[in-house]
Structure formats: structure tokens, C-alpha cells
Amino acid sequence: MTKATETGLTFFALSAIYFALLTGVIPTPTKIHDEILPFLPWWGLVTFGSYALATLGWGIVTFKDKEHKYRELKVQIEEAKQFYRSKGLDLDE
To answer: DSSP readout, the chain?
Structure first.
């Protein structure tokens, strides 16, 4: 199973549980139904956004710790510059 399939299946399962709780198929106390359930999608969105930004930030902070990947990227950048110069494109440095 691919990562996209796993993610889609998880999202579908969580959505099904959420809508079952929201519509009353799965009974919940009134306080939970009225005060917590309406905010769960926003909480999930904010949590996912925070996780995504933290992962991106950590990857940027620790990029130079991965010397092999750093050197590989520098070589690829130089190859791209040479390629575009050979095509007559003036690059700003």
C-alpha cells in the first residue's frame, strides 16, 4: 500500500468517525457534541499545519548536517548554471 493510499484511508476513517459523532450515530454527551465536535476539524488543521511547518523548519536547520546531500545539491546547482549559460542565459550571481 502506498503512502498516499494509507493517508487517504486514514483521512476517510477519521472523517467517518467524526461525521458519525456529529450526526449522533455514535452517542455522545451534549456538552461534547455542542462544545467540542464543531471545533475538531479546525484543531486538526492547525495541528497538521504546525507539524508541517516544524518539519520543514527542522529540515532547513539541519540541512548542513547532511554533508553528502549538501555537496550533491551544490554540484547540481553548478551543473544547472553551466547548462543555462551554454544556452545563452545570463545568470545573476
So the answer is: --HHHHHHHHHHHHHHHHHHHHHTSS---HHHHHHTGGGHHHHHHHHHHHHHHHHHHHHHHTGGG-HHHHHHHHHHHHHHHHHHHHTTPPPP-
Residue 8 lies in a domain: no
Q: Is 65 left (phi over 0), alpha (psi -120 to 50) or beta?
A: alpha
Which structural domain range is residue 72 located in?
65-92
| 78 lies in some domain | yes
Question: What are the backbone angles phi and psi of residue 27, rounded to the nearest 5°?
Answer: -70, 140
pLDDT digits (tens, 9 = 90+) for 39-87: 999 999 999 999 999 999 998 888 777 788 888 989 999 999 999 989 8
User: What pTM value is reported for the model?
Assistant: 0.57
